[in-house]
Description:
The protein is an alpha/beta fold. Helices cover about 30% and strands about 15% of the residues.
Amino acid sequence: MLITHKINWDRCLSHQIWPAIEKGWTDEDRKIHFFWGLAGKNQQEIEKCIENKEEWWYVDVGYLTEPITRYPEPKIHNKDRTYFRIVKGDLHTRRFTAGRKIGDRLRKLEDNKLDVRFKGWSPGQHILICPSSPTVTMRVNKMTQEEWVEAVKEELIKYTDREIRVRNKPRPDNQWWNTDIKDDLKDCHCLVTNMSLASIDAILNYVPVIADGGNVAWPVSSRDPKFIEKPMKPGRKTIEEWLKFIAEHQFTLSEIEDGTAYRTLMYQYE
């Protein structure tokens, strides 16, 4: 039985995604839950799934995708270039193993003119902290977003005297609204985050990452601020394999609806 957890906001993107899931996912004689983000009662319902050992999938904005408009209301601009991640039992996929045979969905993204090519590493000067949303930070780190940022700063200054900058998620009421993260990544030595997808932006724009173990970039990042002066910089082959891997966990609406997502993920999670 497929259970798509509804959010009581009629403009939520989940109202476009759930019909595609219900059409393209093979129903089975057991409960299979789907959640869009952590809004509403989703956190409590996810905890119930974990407690009851029921299968659950997390759906959210894709890893390598054309941006969507999120405010004042969500809008998909190009359905053929807009991808949504679908992850089993977690907020991010973390099952990467170098050398494992995977598909070639990354090439489709390249053909679609999305910026998915690893360009190498470049030296920089400042450190950029990019926290996840307050909701995710509280769930993962058990502290407020502000507390997490201050804790990271305190840890970093033990090991470096570099300038430390902070970039929050762009929202209509903050200073980062209508700004591009690529500007903050120019001359950046390292990006530090907990769960933010800014980790992917950094890696695709010459900047190494320090991230929590739950971040999608964990296989190609350092995880301790003590490595701030010498963060992990994996080789091209490893990065390209990782990009191929995360490309196998995101899909367009039409790919969700026609069963491509289901078939691909059943192979990934077999």
